[in-house]
Amino acid sequence: MATHIAILIKFSDGSFTFLRDDVTEDTLTEIQTDASGLLNITPNLSVGVANQGRVATHAMAKVQTDSATTGAWSFGGFIGPQGEVMCPIQGGGANCTGLSRLVKPVRMQSGVVVKARWQGQADNVQQASVAVYCASGKCDFFTATAVDDTDVSMVNLQGATWGESLSGQTVVGAYATYAATNGLADTGVADGIDAFFVEDSSGQLLGMYAPEKGQGHVVAPYIMQSIRVSQNDTLTVRANV
């Protein structure tokens, strides 16, 4: 049973493009221009190549599983020529709607791609994900596979921790996803924490992100909170099933 991710993008000149590809679960994958032939779009191109010079201002992603609605949005966004996260894209499951304004405009050029990941809803430990943007314009993704009754540090695509990646930055917004059917801490209050949590090196709590399942009626929303980041700060998930 295949699952695809579809991404709608609006540009500053009012034009649109449509990206769509089948994607393996829990695998960050480039989503290219739709190859169905149903729209007047050149197929199988990276977003930057297909739309040279245009500026993306709005986008949304939808996860669709064949004959089912179990696919959930994890995270995704525009990735630059050097592998840097340029800007997150908000998304959700097959029933979500909306076309959100990007946290900053993204100019299309060769080397700019869209990558995304999905998960299937299930009552077990899942991959935790947070997509952040900072006051400076810096953006990043953090992810980890949760472990029952255990703290797990979330890292970015290059393996850097929250503090290593964002030291000196002020995070101002983030969306968080976790596709477990019954949530992060569904078997009592003793073992799990119901949100991903940011701590400093002494264990002082700096912030929390309560995750969306990636299956709501609207795209996973940004959580607006200001967190100044130091080198040894950590972002952690602690699940309980």
Structure notes:
The protein is mostly beta strands. It has one domain. The protein has helices spanning 47-50, 162-166; strands at 3-11, 16-22, 29-30, 55-65, 71-79, 85-88, 91-92, 100-107, 113-120, 127-134, 139-145, 151-153, 170-177, 196-199, 205-209, 223-228, 234-238. Strands 1, 2, 4, 7 and 8 form a 5-stranded mixed beta sheet that branches. A hairpin with a 4-residue loop joins strand 1 and strand 2. The chain is globular and about 55 Å long.
Indicate the proportion of strand residues: 35-45%
Multimer state: single chain
Query: What class do helices, strands and sheet pairing give?
Result: mainly beta
Uncertain runs: none
Sheet with the most strands, sense and barrel status: 5 strands, mixed
Radius of gyration: 17 Å
Helix content: under 10%
Q: What is the overall silhouette?
A: globular
Number of helices: 2
List the helices and strands and how they pair.
Layout: E1 3-11, E2 16-22, E3 29-30, H1 47-50, E4 55-65, E5 71-79, E6 85-88, E7 91-92, E8 100-107, E9 113-120, E10 127-134, E11 139-145, E12 151-153, H2 162-166, E13 170-177, E14 196-199, E15 205-209, E16 223-228, E17 234-238
Parallel strand pairs: 4-7
Antiparallel strand pairs: 1-2, 1-4, 3-9, 4-8, 5-6, 5-9, 10-11, 10-13, 12-17, 13-16, 14-15, 14-17
Give a short summary of the structure.
The protein has 241 residues and is mainly beta. The chain is 4% helix and 44% strand.
